[in-house]
């Protein structure tokens, strides 16, 4: 990591406020890297929570709030914000509200920047109708455009780095999985072991599921990165607490707690497992690129808005899936998100995992046939600039 150079006007800049630990900055960091490394743009990333970001990007630890890495100028979002020349494209991530000083600087440019509000991901039908809508600023000569990630051609697509799927396939075809387990200090699991990753918010239903795994017929290896679920997991196995490095056995269930990892390390964890429990938005998308069965714990929202989002994605993902497998998935995902008994839903879900694995590969292939988010974002911003000139 080196100090930020005196950067001239960057091509893109992203403003990020950390709301939920790593979800918001996880998406913004992936987007910044995809714009810089994949598309070759110069990028400036503003983030308000330096400590949270440093968990994903350890090189930031010890820096003074202004660094440059991989062509990305990373700066701490302070109040007041330093007066700098805005980028050609300014992304306001998840309606985080740009500082007034920067809005005035944008309005003062000879050609105002393209202003994008990058929204949260949803599979709901209304998204296509709101994608790319314009919202003029009430006082300044600026127009904000809403950009919605999504799963079809009428939305903004998903972040997918160049070469990601080829790297995944090479990991699985070669000795990547064996090397990954060796790096964790673990033996390669037997072929009949179900290898599961668990990344979750607090989860009261976990004790029920852990008991089902421990008492089941099939060996289960549960790999748990350090995070918010460890408290519930410790209670589920009768421990006062769990920390990275912990290893224990309960009946057919073997458990390993892993240290926090960066985004590349998390991708490899997903690739090494047969079933992935994910949460929020960033890990949810990565599980789809892993092309293995997964279970989504959605972020709770006021008014049960998360239920509509969950139902919309399940309906979209299950299209074309045989009815018994779709029914088992719906029941298990609902239970994992608080509706129904998780242990009662597990046997049927476990029985259809082979069908879900085949469907996950097909789903990933169909997503990968579409343009990714960076491609669609670039095309849209080029269009806006052409209209302005």
Structure characterization notes:
This protein is α/β, with parallel strands linked by helices. Helices cover 41% and strands 18% of the residues. It has helices spanning 23-38, 50-56, 100-107, 127-130, 164-173, 176-183, 206-215, 230-236, 263-272, 282-290, 305-318, 323-336, 342-351, 353-368, 373-388; strands spanning 2-3, 12-16, 43-47, 66-69, 72-76, 89-93, 114-118, 134-136, 143-147, 194-198, 220-225, 247-250, 253-258, 275-279, 294-297. The strands form 2 sheets. The chain has a 9-stranded mixed β-sheet, covered by helices on one side. The protein has a 6-stranded mixed β-sheet with strand order 12-13-11-10-14-15. Strand 6, helix 3 (100-107) and strand 7 (114-118) form a beta-alpha-beta unit. Helix 6 crosses helix 9, helix 7 crosses helix 8 and helix 12 (323-336) runs antiparallel to helix 13 (342-351). The chain starts with a strand and ends with a helix.
Overview in brief:
The chain is of the alpha/beta class and 389 residues long.
Give the end-to-end Cα distance, rounded to a whole number of Å. Answer: 38 Å
Number of strands: 15
Q: So what's the overall shape?
A: globular
Fraction in helix: 40-55%
Which spans have pLDDT < 50 for at least 5 consecutive residues? 1-6
Strand content: 15-25%
Mean of all residue-level pLDDT scores: 94
Tally of helical runs: 15
Series of secondary-structure elements, N-terminal to C-terminal: EEHEHEEEHEHEEHHEHEHEEHEHEHHHHH
């Amino acid at each position: 990591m080196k100090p930020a150079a005196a950067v001239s006007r960057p091509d893109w800049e992203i403003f990020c406020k950390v709301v939920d630990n790593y979800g918001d900055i996880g998406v913004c960091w992936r987007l910044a890297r995809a714009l810089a490394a994949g598309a070759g743009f110069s990028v400036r990333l503003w983030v308000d929570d330096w400590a949270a970001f440093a968990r994903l990007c350890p090189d930031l630890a010890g820096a003074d709030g202004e660094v440059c890495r991989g062509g990305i100028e990373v700066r701490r979002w302070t109040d007041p914000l330093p007066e700098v020349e805005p980028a050609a494209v300014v992304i306001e991530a998840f309606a985080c509200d740009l500082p007034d000083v920067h809005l005035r600087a944008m309005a003062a440019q000879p050609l105002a920047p393209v202003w994008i509000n990058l929204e949260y991901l949803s599979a709901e039908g209304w998204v296509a109708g709101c994608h790319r809508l314009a919202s003029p600023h009430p006082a300044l000569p600026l127009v904000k455009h809403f950009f919605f990630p999504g799963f079809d051609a009428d939305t903004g697509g998903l972040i997918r780095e160049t070469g990601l799927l080829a790297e995944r396939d090479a990991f699985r075809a070669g000795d990547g999985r064996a090397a990954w387990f060796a790096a964790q200090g673990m033996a390669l699991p037997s072929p009949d072991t179900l290898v599961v990753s668990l990344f979750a918010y607090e989860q009261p239903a976990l004790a029920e599921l852990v008991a089902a795994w421990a008492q089941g017929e099939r060996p289960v290896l549960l790999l748990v990165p350090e995070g918010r679920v460890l408290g519930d997991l410790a209670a589920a196995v009768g421990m006062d607490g769990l920390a990275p490095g912990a290893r224990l056995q309960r009946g057919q269930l073997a458990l390993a707690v892993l240290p926090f990892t960066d985004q590349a390390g998390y991708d490899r964890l997903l690739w090494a497992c047969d079933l992935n429990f994910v949460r929020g938005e960033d890990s949810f998308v990565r599980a789809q690129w892993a092309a293995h069965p997964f279970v989504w714990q959605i972020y709770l929202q006021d008014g049960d808005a998360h239920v509509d989002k969950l139902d919309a994605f399940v309906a979209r993902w299950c299209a074309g899936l045989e009815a018994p497998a779709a029914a088992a998935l719906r029941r298990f995902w609902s239970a994992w998100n608080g509706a129904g008994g998780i242990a009662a839903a597990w046997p049927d879900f476990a029985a259809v995992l082979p069908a879900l694995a085949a469907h996950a590969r097909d789903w990933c292939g169909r997503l990968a046939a579409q343009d990714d988010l960076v491609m669609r974002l670039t095309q849209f911003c080029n269009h806006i600039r052409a209209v302005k000139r």
